[in-house]
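ingest -> validate -> predict -> emit
validate: passed (alphabet ok, no gaps, 218 aa)
predict: started
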Amino acid sequence: MDRTVRFQQPLLLRISHWLNVVLLAGMIASGLQIFHAYPAFAERGAEFCCWPLAGKRFPEAVRLGGWLAGGLKWHLFLMWGFVLNGLVWVGWQIGSGEWRRRAFRPRDLRGAWEMAAYYARRRGEKPAYQVYNGLQKLAYTGTFALGVLAVATGFAIWKPVSLPLAGWMGGYVWARFWHFLIVWAFVGFTIGHLFMTLVVDREATRSMIVGAYRDPAS
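emit:
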């Protein structure tokens, strides 16, 4: 059986993808170190409605920085790398016009549902698509939105006085909570992404390393 190349993953996209893996892992680990200094969201002596694990700390093995100041230094350093990498990615998407093929639109909803059913082994035949299926478009658009929210909430709690962002998010306590919640959204996406690419569609992982995505052809 021959294998034909369906499309080529651009080099810049592959570099950006793997940089994000490293940067996000470091930011999550350093963020947990920062959270370790005060593992709650309400002000001292107050109660917070939506975090039942107040006072529970994450193990040292998953934290980066060693102490609060170390965690902050790592987090801010990696954050600027994440922002720069994101700006380069967005600039390339706009300049190349690639965003038109990757952006999720309402008409892609059916394709995303069908592909999700295929990945969940509820559908035997892989849905037909051109270059990017509906679920891939949803992933691209959703992770971009998460990245923007992560940066916005991060700046809100980093500069709560000089920037008005925290007030728009319900106050400093809520801005910190939204930032923390986005972390777990990234973790959940990563778990699902790994399952889909390593268990169901291994060629997707290979293409993000070597570039060419190959489909079996009869």
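The helical segments are 11-37, 68-96, 99-102, 109-119, 134-158, 165-168, 172-200, 202-210.
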